[in-house]
Structure formats: C-alpha cells, structure tokens
C-alpha cells in the first residue's frame, strides 16, 4: 500500500514537473497572461475557483477510492452492509457545505463582475467599436480630421485594422454591429463581449471599461461569434502605445499628410512616427486572409 502511494506521488510529480511549467503557468490553469487590471481580477477568480473545485475533487476522489479499496464485498458476504440513509448530521453537512461553496463562489463572482462590467466614470478615452461582415471599424468620437470626420480605422480584406490605444489611461468601448451578431475578443484582455445590432433600440448595455493596458505591445483581436462565411478572417490588432506616442499618433491622424493631401491613415501615421516594432504600419500578430473560396485554403 505504501509503495503504491509512493508510486502515485512520484508519477504525479513527474507529470507536473516534466511539463516545464512555472508555478505561475500552473495556477493560471490554461489562461493567457492578462494585460489589464480587470483581466488579472478575472484570472485570480478563475484560479481560486479551480483550486476550490480541485479541493472538492480530491475529497470526492479520495472517498471513492477509500470505498472501493476498503468496502468491497468479501467472499461469503450474503447480507447488505450497514445502511446510512436518514443520517441527519451527515445529510445536514452534505446540504450546508455545498450551499456555502456556492455562496462563496457567487460572492466573489459578483465582486469581480461589478468591476469588469462597470459603466464609464467619464474620464475615459472613448472608442467606438463597429463590427460588420467581415471586418471592424474603430472610431474615436470627439476627434476631428481636417475633413470634419472623426478619426476612424476601417479594416479591409487587404489590411488588418489596427486599434491603436494608449497604455496610461482608462478606456471605454462602445460596441455595435451593422448586421449580425459578432463578438469582440482580445485574448490578453481575457474578455469577450457580443457585439449586437441596434443595442440602443434593444435596450442593451453596450459600453464597457478597462482601467488601463498594463504594457505596450501588439495583441491580436478576433471575432468570437460565428457570423458567416469569413468569420474566421475577422481579425484585428490592438496596438498599445505609451501615452506620449499615442498622443502623437492621434495628432497625426487629425492632420493632413502632405504627400497625399488626405488625413493620415493609421498606417501612414505609424510609419511617420517610426518608433520601431510598436510603430509597425501593418499588423504583426495576424495577417490578411485570401477570401477567394476557389483557392480551397483554410486560410
Ligand atoms: Cu464576426
């Protein structure tokens, strides 16, 4: 018995350590590293929920193994073993303990949800996210190009749209769809949210907030709601810039590019800023897809 236990512990240790995962990797239980405070809160909730589930699991597996190992029918047994139904203390424990578990999980879920799903305080940078079959339009209300239009970045079949955001301030996203239901998903935000048509008419809450993006970088974004033929190609990229670079970007987007006589596009502004990989004028986390169905390629 001791030998079997030693072997089980050894096998478990080999299984865990041979993956080469750090403690941080293990306790994320498969989730990516988040880049917003909200993402970290959700990940922490997930970690503790998984630990609570594992604790319950270990108790159940242990009791099951104990029953199987020590309470088997023995040769010569003809009667039923002693029965335990109507054991009031035991049944009370089995009712109260799950209730406590559910209440605790519920409490922490509500606490995190109230933060993640909060409404804007008014000091956020505003971004409108407009989804359509099969691309994205990101607009910055309150900005003004020389043409009189607000700054916007629209994706095309040939160009993955860049959602340029600052790392140093809160941001509020207002979502709507021009056609069917899409879903706005940046894996590093650990958050996806359905983008619905006519949210105001349908009395749907379509605004959400992040406190900040905690590091500069490029993060892929995807549509996470099946929305038709080219759903899988409906990608975008978040380009998180330090505050001063973001301000420079927005200034350029609101001025005229002498070379074209038109307001700077996202790609032209980033190329002009020339700040290394952060200013790459095209997406670095994903690439445009060939939408020609006769090529018969998956992507
Ligand atoms: Cu979509």
UniProtKB/TrEMBL annotation:
Its EC number is 7.1.1.9. Its main location: membrane. Residues 122-252 form the Cytochrome oxidase subunit II copper A binding domain. It comes from the Bacteria. Subunits I and II form the functional core of the enzyme complex. Electrons originating in cytochrome c are transferred via heme a and Cu(A) to the binuclear center formed by heme a3 and Cu(B). It is a multi-pass membrane protein. It comes from Actinomycetospora endophytica. The chain crosses the membrane at residues 47-69, 90-110. This is cytochrome-c oxidase. It catalyses: 4 Fe(II)-[cytochrome c] + O2 + 8 H(+)(in) = 4 Fe(III)-[cytochrome c] + 2 H2O + 4 H(+)(out).
């Amino acid at each position: 018995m001791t030998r079997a236990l030693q072997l089980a512990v050894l096998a478990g240790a080999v299984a865990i350590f041979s993956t080469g995962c750090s403690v941080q990797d293990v306790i994320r239980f498969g989730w990516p590293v988040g880049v917003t405070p909200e993402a970290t809160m959700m990940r922490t909730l997930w970690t503790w929920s998984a630990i609570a589930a594992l604790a319950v699991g270990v108790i159940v597996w242990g009791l099951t193994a104990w029953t199987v190992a020590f309470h088997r029918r023995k040769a010569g047994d003809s009667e039923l073993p002693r029965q335990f139904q109507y054991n009031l203390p035991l049944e009370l424990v089995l009712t109260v303990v799950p209730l406590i578990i559910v209440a605790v999980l519920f409490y922490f879920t509500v606490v995190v949800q109230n933060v993640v799903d909060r409404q804007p305080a008014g000091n956020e940078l505003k971004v409108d996210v407009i989804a359509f079959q099969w691309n994205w339009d990101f607009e910055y209300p309150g900005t003004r190009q020389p043409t009189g239009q607000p700054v916007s970045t629209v994706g095309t079949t040939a160009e993955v749209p860049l959602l340029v955001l600052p790392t140093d301030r809160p941001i509020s996203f207002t979502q709507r769809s021009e056609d069917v239901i899409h879903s706005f998903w940046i894996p590093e935000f650990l958050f996806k949210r359905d983008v619905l048509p006519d949210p105001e008419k349908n009395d749907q809450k379509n605004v959400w907030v992040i406190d900040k993006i905690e590091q500069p970088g490029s993060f892929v974004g995807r549509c996470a709601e099946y929305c038709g033929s080219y759903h899988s190609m409906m990608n975008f990229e978040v380009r998180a810039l330090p505050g001063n670079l973001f301000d420079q970007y927005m200034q350029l987007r609101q001025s005229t590019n002498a070379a074209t006589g038109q307001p700077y596009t996202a790609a032209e502004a980033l190329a002009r800023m020339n700040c290394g990989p952060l200013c790459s004028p095209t997406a670095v986390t994903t690439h445009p897809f060939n939408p020609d169905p006769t090529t018969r390629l998956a992507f």
